[in-house]
Amino acid sequence: MLRKKVAIIGIDGMYPNLLEKILRKGLMPYLSEKIRDSLHGTLKSTIPPYTPTAWTSISTGVSPVKHGIYGFFVRKSDIEVRLANASDIRYPRIWEMLSIMKKHSVVINIPLIHPFNKMIFRHGDIIITGWNSPVKAIFPSSLRSLKLLDMLAESSQEFRQISRYSPQRYIKAIEQMLEIKILAIRKLLKMGEWSLFYIILSETDWLMHKFVSLHEVANPHKFKRIFRIIDKLIAIISNNVDLTIICSDHGFKCYRRTLYVNMLLSKLGYLKVKHQSRALSKLHVLINNPLVRLLLNQPLIRKRIDGARLKIGESEVMHSIIDLRKTIAYSPEYFIIFVRRGYIKQVKESLSKVITVYEPQELYGKKNPWDPELITTNFNGTAVSSNLNRGIIASRRLFVEKVTPHHAPDGIFIAFGDIRSGGAINNISIYDIAPTVLAYLGLPTPHDTDGRVIEKIALDTNQQTNYTDKWRILRRLRAKFFKYKN
Ligand SMILES: [Zn+2]
Question: At the fourth CATH level, which superfamily is domain 6-250+409-481?
Answer without folding.
Answer: Alkaline Phosphatase, subunit A (3.40.720.10)
